[in-house]
Amino acid sequence: MFAELWIKIISAFLILFIFYLEWRLIISNFSRRHFIKLVSGVVGGTVLSSGFIGCMGSDGSGASFPNGYRFYRIKNGGDAVGTNNRSLELDIFRGSVHLSDNNVITFDAADSSKRVGIVQIAVDFDSGTPKIEWENIPVMTNEYLDDGRYVGNFKAMDVNRQGSVAVDIVAKTPSGERINHQLSGIYLQTDNGSFQPVLTYGQQLADNSVYTTGQLGDIDLHEDNDIMFSSHLKYVDNENMHGYGVLYLPAASLNSSELVMTTGDFVPFSNHAMETFGLIDMHDNGHYAVSGHATALGAATNSNIDEPSSSALLVTGNVATSETLLLGAASDIGGGELTAPCFYGPRTTSTGDVYGITWDETEDHMSLSLGADKIIASGDTTPLGNQALYLSTGTVSHDDSLFYSLSAIDDEGHAVQELLHYNGAQHSVLLATGDTLSDGGAPVETIYFGGTTLQADSQDRIVFYCTFADGTRSLVVGIPA
Q1: pLDDT confidence band for 63 (50 / 70 / 90)
Q2: Does residue 363 register a pLDDT over 50?
Q3: What pLDDT, on a 0 to 100 scale, did the predictor assign at position 24?
Q4: CA dihedral defined by 331, 336, 341, 344, rounded to 10 degrees?
Q5: Mean pLDDT, the chain, as a whole number?
Q6: What gap in Å lies between CA 410 and CA 388, rounded to an integer?
Q7: CA gap 320, 309 in Å, rounded
Q8: Does the pLDDT at position 177 exceed 90?
Q9: What integer is the mean pLDDT of 378-390?
């Protein structure tokens, strides 16, 4: 009896040791030359010691990872997407990808001729292996929209849990035609229909006090088609007065539009005023977070004097009130709970708390926080025992937990990545460099996750891009078992 037990123990140990050797062999194929790829994948795609659950990969049979997730390719680079009458060959995944609660994946991609389209794929997640039910390209460059504008390019885009899509479309004039198009506007698609204009150049907002110049920034689309966006503005009563602003459109309505903040607004508890606005995130009950820059009050603006320097900050608020709070700021502003020279990609929870990244370029240091509390930072030990380098803000789940990714260096000096879930206490590893997906194929090389706000649906299914050791690239979904 004892001998049989001992043999079983030795056999189990040998199996685990073989798995370990195979894993180290996979990892050793990824040298420092992949480092830039890994960083770009973590810090938006466009970039601890604590309890965790490990991840060793799958044998290709469709079995779950130890943490209960299964991963499958949905579309590969080089695949055609769309219908026979309207298709696009996927040459470049441009980085924006979303998963709504109606099981539709929305992303932007380009073919080898650089023609760009917004792609939608409906996925059946109930079968053993995810299956595509339908796929569509609702809009592409170099074609007319329903309102007569001709599509030149797409900029910021966002999707809500109901499956609506808001996008900044840049219009252009087709060769040989005489059409007066003015820069860009916000278009909205609902119920898988065509894109309709919400806002175009020159339309007045906020009780007809300002109008857009067609130079738009970030866009956030929340439930009930509430839209928050940043834009360059001019004032109706004084066209010589202009600046930047953050605006809110309840139910995508211009008539109900509100000017949330604008250039010149005071930064709370400081001697600075708002100057420009960056990335935006809005969540339940009107909570929002906005990154931006501010300048010191009274700073010289004379053209003969150097332009005043601007300082980074991160502010929060709620559309139901006029109060703005300073969450983080550069050291010369002060007053914020976080101090850093740069803030990136805020993600707002349903209670108004904010996940965010601080970045110090001189120190080459990143830190991911929830409010003022640090979650993980450069130099920390990751759940897989590596040294963290760069982090993504990630996607807030329905329960306010966070899916995010990081790049790291292992103990042999190789660049690796980890895709993680943070539940407020533990970091669970979902996927890592060197793992094999549940549908087999080459090991994972790079994970592009965290560049958009809705990469997880209400059932914690996730979507992202991967490159693999054999040079292939795919759109991938992860499904809790």
Answers
A1: very low
A2: yes
A3: 34
A4: 180
A5: 84
A6: 9
A7: 32
A8: no
A9: 96
Q: Residue 434: helix, strand or coil by DSSP?
A: coil
Question: What's at 389, amino acid-wise?
Answer: L
Residue 167: CB atoms within 10 Å: 26
Closest CA to 272 of 247, 293, 288: 293
Which of 30-39, 323-332, 415-424 is predicted with the least confidence, judged by mean pLDDT? Answer: 30-39
Residue 274 corresponds to which tokens in the numbers above? Answer: 């708002």
Token couple for 314: 């991160």
Inter-CA distances, 406 with 33, 173, 367, 378, 449, Å: 17, 42, 11, 9, 9
- Give strand ranges (E) for 129-237: 131-140, 150-159, 165-172, 184-189, 196-199, 204-205, 210-221, 227-235
Average pLDDT of span 289-310: 73
Identify any residues that bridge with 189 across adjacent strands, giving them in sequence order.
Answer: 165
d(CA 23, CA 57): 9
Of the listed ranges 44-48, 283-287, 458-462, the least confidently predicted one is 44-48
Cα 330 to the center of its chain, rounded Å: 23
Q: Is 236 helix (H, G, I), strand (E, B) or coil?
A: coil
As a whole number of angstroms, the distance between CA 333 and CA 338 comes to 11
How far apart (Å, rounded) are the C-alpha atoms in residues 367 and 464?
22
Residue 378 banded pLDDT, cuts 50, 70, 90: very high
Residues contacting residue 455 through CB under 8 Å, at least 6 positions apart: 97, 98, 99, 394, 395, 403, 449, 462, 463, 464
Long-range contacts of 261-268 (CB under 8 A, 24+ apart): 261/290, 261/315, 261/317, 261/324, 262/210, 262/233, 265/324, 266/297, 267/294, 267/313, 267/315, 267/326, 267/329, 267/333, 267/335, 268/315, 268/324, 268/325, 268/326, 268/335
The neighbouring-strand residues paired with 480 are 69
Digit-coded pLDDT (tens) for 456-475? 999 999 999 999 999 999 99
CA dihedral 358, 289, 391, 466 (to 10 degrees): -150
**What confidence score (pLDDT) does residue 67 get?**
62
Q: What is the pLDDT of residue 175?
A: 72
Residue in this structure with the two tokens 């798995």, named with its chain if needed: 19
Q: Are 265 and 233 in contact (CB under 8 A)?
A: no
Cα–Cα distance measured from residue 373 to residue 89, given in angstroms and rounded to the nearest whole number: 44
Mean pLDDT within 432-439? 96
Long-range contacts of 259-262 (CB under 8 A, 24+ apart): 259/205, 259/206, 259/209, 259/210, 260/228, 260/288, 260/317, 260/319, 261/290, 261/315, 261/317, 261/324, 262/210, 262/233
Phi, psi (rounded to 5 degrees) for 283 = -135, -165
